[in-house]
């Protein structure tokens, strides 16, 4: 049985639907990013004001510097030195001799592009529909009806169209990936997780002083913050801690990265998969950080040959973010 349909075998209806899905996706992305841009409230950081006050002999009594004393500056330098050395050791250890043996995908570019467009349009429809149904008829258990159920539906839909486009069964699809953990992989997961954390924290430290309000997913964070009991925490944790990492790693690393790896240089494949990963998260403010996170996850898959490694790192990352959201709320 052929594993994928040739481009010439696609019907006119397929291309019409693909064109409509692409148009809806583009309009949605543009609308979401414009709305997020309008929400961003820029400000001039205090250290910038202080530097300019010193340069132009202006009164520097507006805002006190964070690291005014010699001791605090020495401590900051020490922390940065330790962070740099740790970062160097982890990178040198992890990014060595990449090898990649997953069975390649047979779908062509149009088929791969169609998968992302069709999946994203249904994802939008599920999200919009669940919000409408919840606000009109249910209005209880927001984490269940607005997070877990939509995640289940769009995950199932995504896997189904992947199976259809690649024209393979579920058992063959699962055999494409390695889910085993070797000796030392547990340590590797935590090392790459902390590497990703260093990258994200460095980005946040550099961009946050310029922003007053930069919550790109205010609605999602509001729902997660409402999780006060186990009946609310468990659905949210299942969605963001298990379903999201499982589906996203299979799609962005197991499918997209592998497809790109067959056709272009490894470094470029890792970068493009990271950009696409960030793009579909639709978070404008943290887009560069998500690109870096996507690249780290992609490389972890390349060097480990097991899809379970990026899944575990992603799950650990999302769970940490979820718990921090609970603590803040």
Structure report:
The chain has twelve helices and two strands. It is mainly alpha-helical. It has one domain. The protein has a two-stranded antiparallel ribbon.
Task: Indicate the percent of residues in helices.
Answer: over 70%
Number of helical segments? 12
What percentage of amino acids are in beta strands?
under 5%
Q: Output the structural class.
A: mainly alpha
Q: What is the domain tally?
A: 1
Q: Main β-sheet, in a few words?
A: 2 strands, antiparallel
Cα distance spanning the termini: 53 Å
Overall, the morphology is globular
- Strands ordered across the widest β-sheet: 1-2
How many strands appear in the DSSP assignment? Answer: 2
Mean pLDDT over the full residue set: 76
Comma- or semicolon-separated keywords:
329 residues; mainly alpha; two-stranded antiparallel ribbon; 12 helices; 2 strands; 2% strand
Put the structure in a nutshell.
The chain has 329 residues and is mostly helical.
Compile the SSE list and pairings.
Elements lengths: L11 H28 L1 E2 L3 H10 L14 H25 L14 H30 L3 H25 L3 H6 L9 H23 L3 E3 L4 H8 L4 H32 L4 H14 L7 H18 L3 H21 L1
């Amino acid at each position: 049985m052929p594993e994928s349909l040739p481009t010439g075998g696609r019907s006119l209806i397929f291309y019409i639907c693909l064109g409509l899905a692409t148009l809806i996706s583009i309009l949605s992305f543009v609308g979401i990013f414009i709305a997020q841009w309008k929400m961003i409230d820029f400000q001039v950081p205090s250290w910038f004001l202080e530097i300019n006050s010193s340069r132009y002999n202006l009164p520097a009594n507006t805002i006190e510097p964070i690291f005014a004393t010699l001791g605090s500056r020495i401590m900051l330098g020490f922390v940065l030195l330790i962070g740099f050395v740790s970062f160097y050791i982890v990178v040198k250890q992890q990014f060595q001799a990449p090898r990649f043996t997953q069975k390649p995908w047979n779908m062509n570019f149009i088929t791969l592009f169609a998968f992302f467009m069709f999946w994203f349009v249904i994802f939008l429809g599920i999200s919009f529909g669940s919000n409408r149904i919840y606000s009109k008829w249910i209005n209880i258990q927001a984490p269940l009806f607005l997070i877990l159920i939509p995640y289940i539906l769009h995950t199932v839909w995504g896997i189904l169209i992947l199976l259809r486009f690649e024209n393979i069964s579920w058992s063959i699809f699962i055999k494409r990936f390695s889910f085993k953990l070797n000796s030392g992989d547990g340590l590797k997961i935590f090392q790459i997780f902390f590497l990703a954390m260093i990258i994200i924290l460095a980005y946040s430290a550099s961009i946050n002083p310029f922003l007053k309000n930069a919550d790109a997913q205010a609605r999602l964070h509001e729902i997660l913050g409402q999780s006060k009991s186990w009946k609310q925490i468990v659905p949210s944790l299942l969605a963001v801690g298990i379903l999201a990492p499982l589906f996203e790693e299979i799609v962005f690393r197991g499918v997209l990265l592998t497809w790109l790896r067959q056709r272009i240089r490894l470094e470029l494949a890792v970068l493009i998969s990271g950009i696409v990963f960030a793009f579909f998260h639709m978070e404008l403010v943290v887009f560069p950080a998500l690109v870096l996170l996507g690249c780290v996850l992609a490389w972890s898959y390349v060097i480990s040959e097991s899809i379970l490694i990026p899944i575990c790192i992603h799950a650990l990352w999302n769970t940490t973010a979820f718990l921090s959201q609970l603590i803040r709320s």
